[in-house]
Amino acid sequence: MRELDKRTTVRRRVFLRGAATAPAAATALAAGMTIAPDAAWAGDLKAIKPATMTVLARAARDIFPHDRFPDRYYIAAVLPYDDTAAGDAALRKLLEEGAATLDAEARKRFGRDYIRVASEEQRVEILKSMETSAFFQKLRGDLIVSLYNQKEVWAKLGYEGSSYEHGGYINRGFNDIDWLPEA
């Protein structure tokens, strides 16, 4: 069975971009949290407000939680919305209003914006109240592709990618099952 690299890597540019923000954001980055209200990565957006994008990234982590995934995978999963929303006013409106609804619901229930609700259980409670909304369905549906189609995520999950060009799974991974007890 092949060994997979399950270490978390942070590129220099991402580290410097996050560390250049307010001390609170630098502290959050050091703790592995780059989804913050004043995140530097959200400052270069063209169509979507930075506050909206950070809410989308936090919601992405709450919808598809993986404790071993660094925030950068969730950020990468929602960043394409900015390019798409630049040419699609309906999408921009859906995302902006959806994030505003998450914030309003969080303030109503817990007295703070969604991104500042510390408890994952409380944020999930808010998301569950919105799971039939067009906003939630759009976000969840898009995240299935944008999060899990990142090659770096594949390694974290133990998926080695397509085997067709390597002779198929019979020669590449067919007997790599390590979670079944031996008979």
Question: What do these coordinates show?
Answer:
- This protein has helices spanning 12-19, 23-30, 50-63, 71-78, 80-86, 89-110, 120-129, 134-148, 151-157.
- It contains 9 helices and no strands.
- Residues 20-32 have low confidence and may be disordered.
- The chain has a domain at 47-157.
- Helices cover 54% and strands 0% of the residues.
- The two termini are 18 Å apart.
- The longest helix has 22 residues, at 89-110.
- It has 183 residues and is mainly alpha-helical.
Mean pLDDT: 83
| Overall body shape | globular
Largest beta-sheet characterization: none
Distance between the termini: 18 Å
Strand content: under 5%
Helical residue percent?
A: 40-55%
User: For this entry, what is the oligomeric state of its chains?
Assistant: single chain
- The secondary-structure element order is HHHHHHHHH
Count of runs of 4 or more consecutive helical residues: 9
Low-confidence stretches: 20-32
Rg, Å, rounded: 18 Å
Q: How many runs of DSSP E, i.e. beta strands?
A: 0
